[in-house]
């Protein structure tokens, strides 16, 4: 089977393809239904497939769709792993948990965010014990990132303002302000929320049910939209000099970057899903990383997010303009072509194989 057949054109197809592949691979399936409907009126689910012994001491966890629309890539990688027979080659005392569509609403509606306009990868904070991190610089840019109307002139003006802001405060400060995450403007971009969202609560329940006895866990969360076209960066947010970061470097080599050490274009953020799993599984040694695949330029990717935010606040998703904006954000996070998939899919397989080798040796 061609690798390109692993990838689906929409959420509903991706879900059914994943479930079929998991069933054929002998997985145990479970389903967590979302309370809302998808863009075509379909039911929404976070699905999971477990392969291997229930009491496995080592577990490889893969997650797709954290940033909804990025689920096209993640789902394809999960489906391919199952369809190509890799799941049948797990080391002894090792299991695999594939979590499909962690943000099913965003996946179906073609958004990075969820039903509450939350970036769930900024939402995995222990809200009961600590206040969300402040990002006062975001207030400086919010008004011109959330315009009242949208056309080519407004888009160009926003791009100019962003470029001027980068020139004035520097790239690192500007990136942190705009995309680092904020918890103060619910209508803004990269909003992390002030309480645990549905996906946060669901992933916590999954971790507590399926990972409570594991002693070694590797979490790989599939992402797109940052870096060179087709290149798979492994963004690791464990503390500098921690055992988990050192293990990640030993397992995956030079692909591993640490935002805390200034090695990634990704800013330092709090509340990401994979580190949430590490918090939920304090009994285990957890090595958590994003596989982040580059697509278009950072300017194009960022503008697609701003346009999509405007569309769902003030536009019509089903209008001609809405369809154009949806095509724009899809291209920014899923280049639907053979060249891009030919670069990132084999690399995802390799990374998962390296993870299994690392888990077996730890």
Question: Secondary-structure blueprint of this entry?
Answer:
Blueprint: H1 11-24, E1 28-37, E2 43-51, E3 58-63, H2 71-83, E4 94-100, H3 104-109, H4 138-145, H5 152-169, H6 171-179, H7 198-210, E5 216-229, E6 232-235, H8 243-252, E7 256-257, H9 273-280, E8 285-294, H10 298-314, H11 320-333, H12 338-361
Parallel strand pairs: 3-4, 3-5, 5-8, 6-7
Antiparallel strand pairs: 1-2, 2-4, 6-8
Protein described:
This protein has 362 residues and is an alpha/beta fold. It has two domains: 3-130 and 189-295 and 334-361, Zn peptidases (Aminopeptidase), CATH 3.40.630.10; 138-179 and 301-328, no CATH class. It is built from twelve helices and eight strands. The chain has helices at 11-24, 71-83, 104-109, 138-145, 152-169, 171-179, 198-210, 243-252, 273-280, 298-314, 320-333, 338-361; strands at 28-37, 43-51, 58-63, 94-100, 216-229, 232-235, 256-257, 285-294. It has an eight-stranded mixed sheet with strand order 1-2-4-3-5-8-6-7, sandwiched between helices. Helix 1 (11-24) runs parallel beside helix 2, helix 7 packs across helix 9 and helix 8 packs across helix 12. The model has no long low-confidence stretch (mean pLDDT 96).
């Amino acid at each position: 089977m061609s690798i390109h057949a692993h990838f689906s054109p929409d959420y509903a197809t991706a879900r059914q393809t994943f479930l079929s592949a998991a069933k054929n691979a002998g997985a145990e399936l479970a389903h967590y239904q979302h309370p809302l409907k998808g863009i075509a009126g379909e039911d929404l689910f976070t699905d999971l497939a477990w392969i291997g012994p229930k009491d496995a001491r080592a577990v490889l966890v893969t997650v797709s769709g954290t940033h909804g629309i990025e689920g096209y890539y993640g789902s394809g990688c999960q489906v391919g792993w199952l369809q190509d027979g890799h799941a049948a080659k797990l080391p002894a005392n090792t299991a695999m948990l594939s979590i499909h569509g962690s943000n099913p609403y965003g996946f179906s509606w073609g958004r990075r965010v969820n039903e509450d306009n939350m970036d769930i990868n900024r939402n995995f904070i222990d809200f009961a014990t600590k206040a969300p991190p402040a990002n006062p610089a975001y207030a400086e840019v919010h008004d011109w990132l959330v315009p009242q109307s949208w056309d080519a002139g407004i888009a160009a003006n926003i791009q100019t303002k962003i470029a001027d802001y980068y020139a004035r405060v520097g790239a690192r400060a500007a990136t942190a302000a705009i995309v680092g995450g904020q918890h103060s403007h619910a209508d803004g971009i990269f909003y992390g929320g002030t309480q645990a969202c549905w996906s946060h609560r669901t992933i916590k329940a999954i971790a507590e049910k399926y990972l409570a006895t594991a002693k070694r866990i590797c979490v790989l969360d599939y992402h797109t939209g940052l870096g060179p076209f087709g290149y798979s960066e492994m963004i690791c947010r464990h503390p500098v000099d921690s055992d988990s970061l050192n293990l990640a470097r030993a397992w995956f080599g030079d692909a591993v970057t640490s935002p805390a050490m200034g090695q990634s274009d990704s800013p330092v953020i709090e509340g990401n899903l994979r580190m949430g799993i590490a918090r939920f599984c304090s009994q285990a040694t957890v090595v958590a990383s994003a596989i982040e695949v580059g697509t278009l330029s950072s300017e194009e990717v960022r503008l697609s997010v701003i346009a999509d935010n405007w569309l769902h606040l003030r536009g019509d998703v089903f209008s001609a303009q809405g369809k154009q904006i949806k095509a724009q954000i899809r291209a920014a996070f899923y280049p639907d072509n053979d060249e891009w998939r030919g670069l990132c899919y084999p690399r995802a397989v390799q990374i998962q194989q390296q993870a299994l080798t690392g888990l077996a040796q730890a």
